[in-house]
């Protein structure tokens, strides 16, 4: 009788271990497909579900990052990868519109990296920042649980030669996928 219980216990442990391995190796499922798009310097910029990271605010900080569509694939694309990042302080989880007065040292910052280097610590083609531009807006139009939607427009300047970059018709839908 003891041998039978021991075999059952070993079988149960083996099944539980196998189930744990299968569950933890499965990718996290997302309830909402993410997207972000804009016209940047006259060209369409799109990010896909895997290229967007949105982090639920900690101490009122909104953090939204997006890379060129397909950049998260393996192997990565041979074309240059661009990266857009927006960080805004004062986000309380409700719809809000950040205007030009909120940018710079006042709580919001947007950056665009063109042609991100594939070499560790390498230089990108160009880096643009909203602190040096004007007429910037970032609006969260909808908040539903962990999902935010909105639109944006930036006029950025390159950090070094101060070349201008216009980001228009920006829209996004992003989900916080932290556990």
Q: What does it look like?
A:
The chain is mostly beta strands and 179 residues long. It has one domain (30-175). It is built from one helix and eleven strands. The longest helix has 24 residues, at 2-25. The model is unreliable at 4-28 (pLDDT under 50).
Give the topology, please.
Layout: H1 2-25, E1 35-40, E2 43-47, E3 52-58, E4 61-67, E5 81-89, E6 96-98, E7 108-116, E8 126-129, E9 137-144, E10 147-158, E11 164-175
Antiparallel strand pairs: 1-2, 1-11, 3-4, 4-5, 5-7, 6-9, 7-8, 8-10, 9-10, 10-11
Specify the overall morphology.
globular
If you compute it from the alpha carbons, what radius of gyration comes out, rounded to the nearest whole angstrom?
Answer: 22 Å
Structural class: mainly beta
- Biggest sheet: strands, sense, closure? 11 strands, antiparallel
Using DSSP, what is the number of strands?
11
What's the number of domains? Answer: 1
Q: Low-confidence stretches at least 5 residues in length (pLDDT < 50)?
A: 4-28
Order of helices and strands: HEEEEEEEEEEE
* Approximate helicity band: 10-25%
Identify the quaternary structure here: single chain
List keywords for this structure.
mainly beta, 11-stranded antiparallel β-sheet, single chain, 179 residues
């Amino acid at each position: 009788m003891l041998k039978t219980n021991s075999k059952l216990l070993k079988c149960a442990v083996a099944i539980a271990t196998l189930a744990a391995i299968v569950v933890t190796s499965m990718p996290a499922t997302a309830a909402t497909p993410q997207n972000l798009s804009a016209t940047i310097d006259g060209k369409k910029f799109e990010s896909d579900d895997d290229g967007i990271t949105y982090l639920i605010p900690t101490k009122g900080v909104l953090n939204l990052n997006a890379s060129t569509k397909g950049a998260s694939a393996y192997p990565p694309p041979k074309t240059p990868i661009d990266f857009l990042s927006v960080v805004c302080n004062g986000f309380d989880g409700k719809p809000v519109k950040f205007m030009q007065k909120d940018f710079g040292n006042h709580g919001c910052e947007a950056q665009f990296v063109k042609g991100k280097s594939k070499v560790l610590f390498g230089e990108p083609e160009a880096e643009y920042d909203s602190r040096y531009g004007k007429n910037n807006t970032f609006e969260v139009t909808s908040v539903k649980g962990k999902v935010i939607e909105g639109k944006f427009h930036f006029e950025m300047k390159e950090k070094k030669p101060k070349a201008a970059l216009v980001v228009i018709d920006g829209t996004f839908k992003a989900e916080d996928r932290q556990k």
